[in-house]
Amino acid sequence: MNDNYLSELNEPQRAAVMHINGPLMIVAGAGSGKTKVLTTRIAHLLRNGVDAFNILSLTFTNKAAKEMKERVERILGSSEARNLYIGTFHSVFARLLRAEATKLGYPSDFTIYDSDDAKSVIKTILHELNLDDKHYKPNLVYGRISAAKNNLMSPEEYKHDHAIQQEDMRANRPMIGHIYEAYAKRCFKNGAMDFDDLLYKMYLLLKHFPEVLHKYQHKFKYIMIDEYQDTNPAQYEIIKLLGAAHENICVVGDDAQSIYSFRGATIQNILQFEKDYEDTKVVKLEQNYRSTKSILNVANEVIGNNKGQIEKALWTDNIEGEKIKLVRTMTDNEEGKFVADTIAEQKLRNHYNNRDFCILYRTNAQSRSFEESLRRMNIAYRIFGGISFYQRKEIKDFLSYLRVVSNTRDEENIKRIINYPIRGIGKTTIEKTMVLANDQDIPFWEVLVRAREFGFKGGTLEAIDGFVTMIQSFQAMVQQQHNAYDIAIAVGKSTGIVKELFNDKTTEGLARYENIQELLNSIKEFTETPTEDGELLEKSLGTYLQQISLLTDADNGSDENSDVVKLMTIHAAKGLEFPVVFNVGLEESLFPSSMSINTREELEEERRLFYVAVTRAKTRLFISYANSRYRFGNLVQNEPSRFLDEMPEKYIDRSYAGGGVRNAFGGSNSGWGNSNNMFDRKKTVVTQPPTATGVRSTPKPMPVVSTHVPSPNFTPDDPATMEAGMEVEHQKFGFGTITAMEGASHNRIATVVFPKAGGEKKIMLNYAKLMITKR
DNA sequence: CCGGGCATCCTTTTT
DNA sequence: GGATGCCCGG
Fold first, then answer.
1. Alpha helices in A101-209 (DSSP H)
2. Are A489 and A516 in contact (CB under 8 A)?
3. CA A234/CA A148 separation, integer angstroms
4. Of A15, A49, A122, A150, which has the highest C-beta tally within 10 A?
């Protein structure tokens, strides 16, 4: 590393980098070179004799962690950098918990539940407690539990907290405490932790095992935390515990960019840091290197409407730049078209590449209109966030096998795959198994292993045994030190999943097959890439699973620099920057969201979100809103967002006509910025469908089958006595005549002609009942 | 027991 | 418009 690294910094940046011991708070405005400071500071620490093994650096996203690692490597070289502990809160804690799992009674291969897994456990529990999931919405219940854990509250404490009980009573949901308790028990029994547990259990571990605390306090002598404004109480307490021995804590944050309170983050953590740690050195990074004056001034002006901030004045030496283009369209589809057209225009006019553009929206659901318009214009794009690769059904199914092999305590995942592919283990069998497992207080898996003993018979027993044997064969492979890829291949073959998807020639089937292949490839890549840190040399299944559970699709981009327009939510864009940004959907009830306008705090968070959105842009910023848009399938009208009124008029250009609002059938020929513009605009308005009234009648289809009222004395007859030629009555189809019988004695199928209900039908007599009216 | 078809909810934002 | 849940027919 060269000695000049300090000279590339401005005054406050250098002050931050050179502070080595004692608490440090860096208030880093948007685009003020925060990552540069963090990475340079790590270099500086090492330069001054700090051991890389003693540095812990925590971020919120994999992306941020990855970037930090890469930048440190660039300064230090990879041999030294690999000894640093850089990762997300969740991944670092998962690793530590894995090492200490047995102390908490967990297997070291514990499963990590994502929120879908968690909600499905909650549904099971609601069912068991005989609670109505219409009233106890899994989403809501999960949110309460999550909030409790983020505030380090156990089920016991939850149940005895007066304020919380009042709240739940008032909402008429008094059982949430019990659900939480049962949920926690079930997760433990399953050997599984959800995302929040990774923080909560980490806290408990440090709190209740002093020797563990001491070990890690000693190991992590220097701690750095990125995006400190987004930490929640659990993270806060963990950091406090870890840092207590040496207080070499460096936090970086910007209160103006705190946008995660819905996840339990409290802005108080950063506002109070100075009070928590005596002699905190505070450094403010106020020079913005990213944006034009126009962009920055708009951002500053808007955020000025928030109260109670850390005082700072963000400024820039950059050029004034173009005004912010504010564009109104009639509909969401037109908004999509506007953006795609403008991208095409800007590419020509200002020689941009696709990768220079980013479309930012408030909710994932908004992506559709932009996808459609970009596709029509043949502009390559990629959506970040939304349903990630690992949340796809086929991927989750496949991974469930691997998870079960790794941890048979995991009832949730066993249930997911026990009948996939179909092997004749149905709902009845699963329920019976659950009851047995509960009654005997043994794992679900053990009931399956001892199925014969528990009275399962015939085909069911055979199917269960086959399933158990198969899983055990995979486990044997784990024992024999086969790596994750070998086992995944075996799973794909033995289960028949790969073959089944291969034979499915529908479009979706094809996509699923490709996804599975991609998954297998990624597992292969995992096993073949040498690990950077000495602690994780093996390429075991367990290691693999642990890693991917915390992966969101953001990290999945090997094509980081591929030339595509990026689409994402504003939340996902935090920390990123783009030459040209489209900030779309600036409408009341969408942005700010109708969910977040009830309190001042909520509204201020929305405003901070807008601030984040604006400050992503380097040189050009387009802001758009639609007069009306489709929501849940019908057209709604929205007022322009109140944030638009907060933007200073002198930096706004409302006259921009768009890259040419084209006529709806324009397709390949994009007619922007030329003399046809007027025509195009007119046409566009006219071609709006007449559904714009907002009323859409949904015609009710007539029932195909005429409803037959069964005879009052209807009693099904024994299928064994039925023969062709008999006249019969069906509860739905009415009267008919049997024309043929087939099937073995235990599964007879009658072909019956029902004159009043569409003619000939095949009736499986085991399930559908017939009464004989004439022999 | 299983799969298809309809009805119903939905929407913040993410590790 | 889209995913999940439930019901019913085979």
1. 115-128, 138-150, 155-160, 162-170, 176-189, 195-208
2. no
3. 10
4. A122
Pick A723 or A260 by higher pLDDT. A260
Residues contacting residue A461 through CB under 8 Å, at least 6 positions apart: A451, A452
Of the candidates A241, A243, A270, A238, the one whose C-alpha atom is nearest the C-alpha of residue A254 is: A270
Nucleotide closest to residue A133 (CA–C1'): C5
- The answer to whether A31 is a known ligand-binding residue is yes
Cis ω before A592 (30° cut-off from 0): yes
The rounded distance, in Å, linking the Cα atoms of A467 and A408 is 12
* Strand B positions within 7 A of protein Cβ atoms: 1-3, 6, 9-15
Residue A114 annotated to the active site: no
Is A427 near strand C, with its CB below 7 A from some atom of it?
Answer: no
Active-site residue (options: A168, A196, A197, A227): A227
A616 is catalytic: yes
Q: SS3 for A435?
A: helix
- Is the pLDDT at A339 greater than 70? The verdict is yes
Q: Which of A254-268, A322-336, A703-717 has the lowest mean pLDDT?
A: A703-717
- With CA of A730 and C1' of each nucleotide, the nearest comes out as C9
The pLDDT tens digits of the residues spanning A153-187 come to 999 999 999 999 998 888 888 899 999 999 999 99
CA A486 distance to own-chain centroid: 28
Q: How would residue A300 be classed by pLDDT, with cut points 50, 70 and 90?
A: very high
Identify the active-site residue in A35, A280, A751, A773.
A35
Take residue A231 and report the two structure tokens written for it.
């930490």
At A505-557, the pLDDT tens digits run: 777 778 788 888 888 988 888 888 765 544 444 678 888 888 888 876 555 55
Higher pLDDT, A14 or A750: A14
Beta-bridge mates of residue A629: A636
Contact A663, A341 (CB under 8 A): no
SS (H, E, C) A637-704: ECCECHHHHCCCHHHEECCCCCCCCCCCCCCCCCCCCCCCHHHHHHHHHHCCCHHHHCCCCCCCCCCC
Point out the catalytic residue in the list A13, A39, A235, A257: A257
pLDDT tier, A701 (very low <50, low <70, confident <90, very high otherwise): very low
pLDDT at res. A686: 23
Nucleotides of strand C within 7 Å of the protein's CB atoms? 1-2, 4-6, 8-10
| pLDDT for A663 beyond 50 | no
Confidence of residue A688 (pLDDT cuts 50, 70, 90): very low
Question: Cβ–Cβ contacts within 10 Å for residue A118, how many?
Answer: 24
Q: Count other Cβ atoms within 10 Å, centred on residue A8.
A: 11
**Per the annotation, does A299 bind a ligand?**
no
Instruction: Tell me the two tokens of residue A393.
Output: 């059904």
